Amino acid sequence: MKTKAKKVTAKRKQAKKKPPLNETATFEKLLKKATGVEHYTLRLYITGSTPRSSQAVKNIRSLCEEYLPGRYDLEVVDIYQQPLEAADEQVIAAPTLIKKMPAPMKRLVGDLSDRDKVVVGLNLKSKTQPDGKIKWVKV
Fold first, then answer.
1. Confidence of residue 134 (pLDDT cuts 50, 70, 90)
2. Which of 35, 42, 88, 114 is deepest in the core (most CB within 10 A)?
């Protein structure tokens, strides 16, 4: 009688076990944390080829090349050509920059010409100098 109870208990424990994790995804997450390098995913919503839209694209590309060289993906979406994407993201003004990754998600509206505010908004608090020292950006 006791052996049956042990078998039933063992089966219940096996049924409660979680499915195996994706080891590759877990390894990649741990690797990113260990290196301390975060990859930024940005999406900029613009309205056609207006001067304000062109300025926003120029400003964010300049800032990304300065602070995030090789560590960012920037997608520029024209809301006139792709209105459904803008509706899905609930974009009501343009230009709008959305930082998807790393968390938390942020939205910045405007032509992104105030670099200090954009740096703070994207959480780009510091950058490393060629001599290896960290230079803190004034806020």
1. low
2. 42
